[in-house]
Amino acid sequence: MTLKNLPVGKSGIITAVGGEGLLRCRLLDMGLIPHTFVTVQKIAPMGDPMEIRLRGYELTIRMEDADKIEIQPEVDAR
Fold first, then answer.
1. CA-closest candidate to residue 71, choices 36, 43, 42
2. Coil, strand, or helix at residue 4?
3. Which long-range contacts (CB under 8 A, 24 or more apart) does 47-50 make?
4. pTM for the full model?
């Protein structure tokens, strides 16, 4: 499952970060690394972008980028 498919209010643990080159480096620099716990806070009215909470701060990312982040949903993670 990808972060893009996680419903609002649900949480999960990042298992893998896809993408290539600078995009992947940028995602990792923003704290989106494997074994990080994330929660979807909200999704914009038009469906893009989404706001997530991780490591004590909120981050807004595009759905296209969220689709590159593999997660394990909370019900399976705990």
1. 36
2. helix
3. 50/3, 50/4
4. 0.84
